[in-house]
Amino acid sequence: MSGLVAPPSDDMSERRRRAVTAMLRAAYAWSARQARPEAMREVARMTGFVMEAHGPGSGPVTPLALVDALRRPLGELPILGSTDSSDDGLRDAVLLEPDGVGGDRLSAPALDLLCEHVVPLDAEADGQGWLPSWTRMTADRIRARAFAAMAGPKDQRLYETSRKFLIEHPAGRLQELQIGVSETGARMMPGGYRPIPESSLYRTRDDGAWWWPCPDCRWPMAVTRDQVQCRYRPHSTVFRAAERRGAKSPELTRVDEGPAVKTPVALSAVGSGCVGQGVWRFIVVPGASELRIAAQLERLGADVEMWPELDAYDLHVTIGGTEFRLDVKEYRSPHRLITDLRARPPRAQVAVLLPRTHGHQAEAVATALPRIEVLTEQRLLRKVRRIKKTIEERKDGDR
Ligand SMILES: [Zn+2]
């Protein structure tokens, strides 16, 4: 006989998703509890959702047990530990990390997961407006709002200029940004540049505040005591900051062993600005890959049009009579990517392009969605190189 109260969903993957959302919301609330006294109510409410997802007899049952679980890898939750899914980073993610002054703060993986994993819980819990607005807005809405401002007169060239400018200049000295805007004629989005967030500032002994742009995306890297790293984990370079005697500004030393990058120079927070976190995460982060791939293709002799037909897709590539229409997809979670592609498949003749950091997702996507063409950055470059070689051989033959 079934119980009187049916659980909201019997579907295991739906229950896992609800548990992850509730954990993320609880982590956010806990990290914000100094400023927002009602945060503990949200933590308690979210404990209810995590318990409901687990069913009786497993998982954390009190708010404090939940907070404790937020400080450990998500995979230790019974509901996520039992899954054999290889959902990138989800099981290893720790949502709260020490803030260095005896409290907790939201970790970089938590911020990242917020973008892709938040699902509605129920009308009452969702009506509270708890999460920062950019995590509640979908990527599409953030992009649509920014791009509407850039492409006011439906002018493709102005649109491309403005979007490129935004991706290449997500942060910097306000005076230089101003000059760049007027020289390129780029349109800025509403909201424009704001002060550098506190969590990206390094304070020196003389009370100076400094920040560093990420070598990959140029947005301010997160500063945790003396460790400096982009919040977007695929941008994986890690630095250590130090104040050197006699130096005007603090300096970074590389501490990881990834591929060589130029070490960023510290910029003063005074007179600097950056775009908001939502715009960074949903426009600048994927845009940095799009521009990098486009530059590589152009070096190989291809013609590349960015975001043609006012963003019908991302890249239109032509070389020697061959055309590629590509939509660059950069998701942390292959499951989210597949779900989104299933809901909104690319237009006819547009292939999905996975950047080099995400090439490992190709097989999962191709298996789940055999009708969608999936290319990795490496495969695309191989194809274009081969075409270039054929063209050169033909030219040599004609001589
Ligand atoms: Zn970055």
UniProtKB/TrEMBL annotation:
<feature type="domain" description="REase associating with pPIWI RE">
    <location>
        <begin position="287"/>
        <end position="388"/>
    </location>
</feature>
<dbReference type="InterPro" id="IPR041191">
    <property type="entry name" value="pPIWI_RE_Y"/>
</dbReference>
<feature type="domain" description="pPIWI-RE three-gene island">
    <location>
        <begin position="17"/>
        <end position="172"/>
    </location>
</feature>
<dbReference type="Pfam" id="PF18156">
    <property type="entry name" value="pPIWI_RE_Y"/>
</dbReference>
<dbReference type="InterPro" id="IPR040828">
    <property type="entry name" value="pPIWI_RE_REase"/>
</dbReference>
<dbReference type="Pfam" id="PF18154">
    <property type="entry name" value="pPIWI_RE_REase"/>
</dbReference>
<protein>
    <recommendedName>
        <fullName>REase associating with pPIWI RE domain-containing protein</fullName>
    </recommendedName>
</protein>
